[in-house]
Every structure is written in structure tokens, then in C-alpha cells.
């Protein structure tokens, strides 16, 4: 176990917004009197009509209801754009970095205001009204942010579908929220490859029509100029629609609890859920976490590498940063194109101070070798962040030592689509770090660890992670299915929000996410998080990635099945298999020795880069005929190889 403490670097401590004493005091206040705390911090955004009520929430299983600032009114787009015009109209709001390193653009708040207003009017001209659902199926181009903000401006509810999803996945999401409007592009461009977004959209509309879902209008951005068919009366070019629209669009007055967006979860564990977020509480929480977690300070360039198709892109590329008047970087490409130096070249080019990415990217770049990092400068970097999966200590230390040159604190941020914003995280100026730990709760968050029966466990312990009370950014319902919301999150442990994640709390009160509760394995009566075994494997110099699952074992109950991807240039061998078993035995103990190791050129991942253990479990059980919903797989081909080379054959 890496329990080594990394204290706050001196330079960070001096400059940071929040130090440890302030963190402790504010945290205490947020728990002692949530109403007073959020009444105060709710004021960080502009309200048209101020709220008089703050918190009105019930986790009671029979009556789950979550409302924040309910009698206040506001507009999210006005908060992200209009209110900055006077003081920072000419400041860059969005830096766009294209797939091709030669393509980039700076968009000021004033330009953003005009473009969003025009698009908002173009939406209206095409029949979009307050409350309508608009599906956004776009690549990472500024128009994606314009579309989100244009919806928010007129009170339409956006549902973003990641541009890497197939026509079927798109169709499911269109049907589920009955969205009659789509905005897409002719083609996307990622890593030099074209993605046929418009053709996918056409197919999706056909599929959705079989279920009775009708799409009235499709607005099409010309990104590559590739060939597309435009259907008369239905399809409209973006550039024509905005040119014809007025640049004057007063923001709609929305109530705090009006829906802002629907976003389908990434589907690591099952069928995606339409997570619904509302307006006031979401924005307060996204903005506040963005400022404090990343210690964002005026005029800094902030870069989150996520796609706007994920919640991270919603809260930490668009809404949080822009509400704070930050300069946010939006990247169209991928980490390894044209070379694995790309991230760091972009950091140098735009003088990025704060950089936020996912463990999957860090591990991939680590596999490519540190030369790609070291040949870049990176002196502008001040803070690093991680999100999406547990980051194994090995990758954490590489990120810290090689990328950040031991100068930049890493904020390992734990949260979910459902939570709207970050819940457990270090604050750069306040928290001494431990590699692999998300550390401590953000203001207003009350994590608890409970056993299988729901009994709260005290002190240093391990179990299931629940949150005892609501916070403003929490999802309000599963779109169109409140019962599913209640069943999924509030029925396992009555009166508490169940995260679905396993967690350990150490003697310092630090939280360590051990993976999803479904992924816990039980070997001869010992319960073990898969993350721990994976971390041990990845710590081996020849291993680049590992995924561990349980499978039925006649003696132990469950055996440990490890899928291992090797570093570039390493060859699989029986010898290496044995060596890895011995290695894990030494690192953790005999109980954790893998029973079966399968070398895999690639692992099944969601489009957001998370390992889909659900599928690996089936293959390990030799029960791969029914893999369940695979629509969110990034590369379905990976699965065939895994099945072919499976180690457990009945
Ligand atoms: P689905 O809910 O559809 O199965 P998903 O859980 O992968 O998909 P997200 O909401 O994108 O969808 O991911 C949230 C989950 O990601 C968390 O519950 C947790 O398991 C994992 N996670 C996110 N950030 C971290 C982190 N910093 N450390 C550990 N785990 C993390
Ligand atoms: Mg989840």
C-alpha cells in the first residue's frame, strides 16, 4: 500500500484559494448548517429572482424528492456568458484546439454571446420551444458548446450523445427522451479519421421511427465538407440557419428546478440511465467545485480533456468554467495523434495551467514511454487532475513525477454522472496527497461506509460507499422513470444515496475507492476490491494495463482471473505468467494470487475509456453467449479476441 504522504507544495500553499484550516472550517459549517452554507454560496451565480428557500430534500424511500433553491429563477447561459461581458468581454472564453495541430481558434466571451444567441434563435426559428429535448450529436468543436448554451438560453433540455456512439445507441437515446430535434455535423474528425455523424444520424432516425419517435429537424454543422444527404424540409445547414437568425436573444427566465439536461450514463454496469439534472443547484455546484477543486484563478488557461458527451465535459469544460469566467480549452483530437506528445504540446502551445484527464489516458501515455513527455516544456502547468476510474498508484506517481515534475498537486476527483459534480477530492492548497486516494469530501458531502446490511461503519474500515444527505448538484430523477431512480439509488440502503462503489477509509479519514461493489471478489471468504489486484499488476514494469474479475472456483468460491495488457514491445510467455503471479503474491499476499492470467492486446472499454468488467466477468465464467448490452463498447473487436483466447474452458 502506498500510504506515503505528499504534502502541499510550498508554492501552491502560498497561492491557493483554500488552505487546510479554511477547508476544515468550511466543511464543518457545510455539515452543521447546510441551509446557511448554501444560502451563502448560492449567491456565487446571478439570480433573476433570488431564492428564499434553500434545501428541500428527502431521501425517504417512500418519497424521494430533491429540490434546491426552488423559488429562485435564473438563466444558465446568462450566467456563463452575459454576466461576464462587462468585465471580460474580450477575454478568451474558449480555446479550441483542432484534431490537426495547425487548427485552433480563440473565442471571446463577446463572440460566444453572439454565436450562442444566433443559434438559440435558429433553434426557435426551427420550432424548438422551452422544455423540448434537443439531441446534440457533435464532435468536439465549439458548436457543441454553443448548442448546449443555446438550449440553456431558451430553456430547451439538451441530451448529448457522444460522437463515437453508433446509430443504434443514438436511436435508443432519441427514443428514450422523445427528442424531435437533433444537431449534428457532416463528419467528425479524430486522430485523422473521419466519423460519419450525419450518416449515423440518418440511420438512427430510421431506427427510432420504428418505435414511433419522430425527428422534425436536424441542424447540420459543416465540419469536414464531406458528402452528406440533406433531407428536404427536415435537414438544415447550421451556417445558413445562424446567418438568418437574429443575434438578439433575451435569456429565458427559468426556475431553479427546471431541467437543464439529460445525460445517459456511460453504461459500464448495464443499460444507460437518463440522468436528469436541473438548473440552479447544478450550476452553483459545478461552478463552486470547478473553482475550489482546481484552485482556478483569474486569467488562467484550464483544460479538461474529456468529451462533452460525458458529464465531465458538461460540468468541467462548459458549465463550471464558463460560469466562473474561466478560459476553457476544448480539444477535438486524441492523446496519441499525431504522436503521444500531443497533450503536452497543446499544454505548451496554449500555456495551460490546469490539466484534467482520465487514468486510461495516463496509462496509455505511460506505456508509450516518458521521452514523449520530457521533450516538452510543461512549465505552465500548476495543477493536474484525474477522473473516471480509480487511478492506480503506479500511474499516479508517473503523472506526478514525470508530467508534473513533482511540482503540481494531483486532484483525484471521485464523482459520477449522477452527482453532477465532484464529491470526494483533494483541494490543491489544503490536502496532503496519497497516490490512489480521492482523499476527503468536498463541502456539503457526507460520505459514509456501510456494511451489506446498511450499518454505518466507523473509523478505518472498508465497505459500500453511500452519501448521507443531498447536495445541490445531485441528479433529480431518471428521465421519465422516477421509480427507477428510487430503486437504483435509494432502495439498497434506505434513507441514503447508494453510489454503487466500494470504498476504504484509512486512519487519516482518507477515502479510497476500491471499484464498483459488483466487482468485489470473494476468495475463500476474503473480500477483495479488484482495484487493489489491478494496481499490483500494473506496478510490474512489463504491464501496461490490467483488469481483474472473479469467476466460480470449486475450492475457493471465487478465483481471480486477470486480463493483462503488456507494455509496447513486451512478449507474452508462460514464464511471464508465472512471474506475474509471484509478483502479486509478493505485493499483496498469497490470497490475491491470480489463478488465471490472460494476455490481451486490448481490453473492452466504454467509449469514455472505462474497462467494462461486466463483459470480462462473463468471459472469465466461460459464459460469453450472453454479454448483455454491448452498445457502449468502444471497439467490439476486442471482445472476439478475448473469447478466442479465454483461459477458463469448461
Ligand atoms: P454506469 O453507471 O452506466 O454503469 P459509469 O458508472 O461508468 O456507468 P459514470 O457516471 O461516468 O458512469 O462513472 C462514475 C463511476 O466512475 C463511479 O461510480 C466510479 O466507479 C468511477 N470513478 C469516477 N471517478 C473516479 C475516481 N476518481 N476514483 C475512482 N473511481 C472513479
Ligand atoms: Mg455508474
From TrEMBL:
<feature type="binding site">
    <location>
        <position position="524"/>
    </location>
    <ligand>
        <name>CoA</name>
    </ligand>
</feature>
<feature type="binding site">
    <location>
        <begin position="388"/>
        <end position="390"/>
    </location>
    <ligand>
        <name>ATP</name>
    </ligand>
</feature>
<dbReference type="GO" id="GO:0005829">
    <property type="term" value="C:cytosol"/>
</dbReference>
<dbReference type="InterPro" id="IPR000873">
    <property type="entry name" value="AMP-dep_synth/lig_dom"/>
</dbReference>
<dbReference type="InterPro" id="IPR025110">
    <property type="entry name" value="AMP-bd_C"/>
</dbReference>
<feature type="domain" description="AMP-binding enzyme C-terminal">
    <location>
        <begin position="532"/>
        <end position="610"/>
    </location>
</feature>
<dbReference type="Pfam" id="PF00501">
    <property type="entry name" value="AMP-binding"/>
</dbReference>
<keyword id="KW-0460">Magnesium</keyword>
<dbReference type="GO" id="GO:0005524">
    <property type="term" value="F:ATP binding"/>
</dbReference>
<dbReference type="GO" id="GO:0016208">
    <property type="term" value="F:AMP binding"/>
</dbReference>
<dbReference type="Pfam" id="PF16177">
    <property type="entry name" value="ACAS_N"/>
</dbReference>
<feature type="binding site">
    <location>
        <position position="543"/>
    </location>
    <ligand>
        <name>Mg(2+)</name>
    </ligand>
</feature>
<keyword id="KW-0547">Nucleotide-binding</keyword>
<feature type="binding site">
    <location>
        <position position="585"/>
    </location>
    <ligand>
        <name>CoA</name>
    </ligand>
</feature>
<dbReference type="InterPro" id="IPR042099">
    <property type="entry name" value="ANL_N_sf"/>
</dbReference>
<feature type="binding site">
    <location>
        <position position="540"/>
    </location>
    <ligand>
        <name>Mg(2+)</name>
    </ligand>
</feature>
<dbReference type="InterPro" id="IPR045851">
    <property type="entry name" value="AMP-bd_C_sf"/>
</dbReference>
<feature type="binding site">
    <location>
        <position position="501"/>
    </location>
    <ligand>
        <name>ATP</name>
    </ligand>
</feature>
<feature type="binding site">
    <location>
        <position position="538"/>
    </location>
    <ligand>
        <name>Mg(2+)</name>
    </ligand>
</feature>
<feature type="binding site">
    <location>
        <begin position="412"/>
        <end position="417"/>
    </location>
    <ligand>
        <name>ATP</name>
    </ligand>
</feature>
<feature type="domain" description="Acetyl-coenzyme A synthetase N-terminal">
    <location>
        <begin position="23"/>
        <end position="80"/>
    </location>
</feature>
<feature type="binding site">
    <location>
        <begin position="190"/>
        <end position="193"/>
    </location>
    <ligand>
        <name>CoA</name>
    </ligand>
</feature>
<keyword id="KW-0007">Acetylation</keyword>
<keyword id="KW-0479">Metal-binding</keyword>
<feature type="binding site">
    <location>
        <position position="312"/>
    </location>
    <ligand>
        <name>CoA</name>
    </ligand>
</feature>
<dbReference type="InterPro" id="IPR020845">
    <property type="entry name" value="AMP-binding_CS"/>
</dbReference>
<comment type="function">
    <text>Catalyzes the conversion of acetate into acetyl-CoA (AcCoA), an essential intermediate at the junction of anabolic and catabolic pathways. AcsA undergoes a two-step reaction. In the first half reaction, AcsA combines acetate with ATP to form acetyl-adenylate (AcAMP) intermediate. In the second half reaction, it can then transfer the acetyl group from AcAMP to the sulfhydryl group of CoA, forming the product AcCoA.</text>
</comment>
<protein>
    <recommendedName>
        <fullName>Acetyl-coenzyme A synthetase</fullName>
        <ecNumber>6.2.1.1</ecNumber>
    </recommendedName>
</protein>
<feature type="binding site">
    <location>
        <position position="336"/>
    </location>
    <ligand>
        <name>CoA</name>
    </ligand>
</feature>
<feature type="modified residue" description="N6-acetyllysine">
    <location>
        <position position="610"/>
    </location>
</feature>
<feature type="binding site">
    <location>
        <position position="516"/>
    </location>
    <ligand>
        <name>ATP</name>
    </ligand>
</feature>
<keyword id="KW-0436">Ligase</keyword>
<dbReference type="GO" id="GO:0003987">
    <property type="term" value="F:acetate-CoA ligase activity"/>
</dbReference>
<dbReference type="Pfam" id="PF13193">
    <property type="entry name" value="AMP-binding_C"/>
</dbReference>
<dbReference type="GO" id="GO:0019427">
    <property type="term" value="P:acetyl-CoA biosynthetic process from acetate"/>
</dbReference>
<dbReference type="InterPro" id="IPR011904">
    <property type="entry name" value="Ac_CoA_lig"/>
</dbReference>
<keyword id="KW-0067">ATP-binding</keyword>
<dbReference type="GO" id="GO:0046872">
    <property type="term" value="F:metal ion binding"/>
</dbReference>
<comment type="similarity">
    <text>Belongs to the ATP-dependent AMP-binding enzyme family.</text>
</comment>
<dbReference type="InterPro" id="IPR032387">
    <property type="entry name" value="ACAS_N"/>
</dbReference>
<feature type="binding site">
    <location>
        <position position="527"/>
    </location>
    <ligand>
        <name>ATP</name>
    </ligand>
</feature>
<feature type="domain" description="AMP-dependent synthetase/ligase">
    <location>
        <begin position="82"/>
        <end position="469"/>
    </location>
</feature>
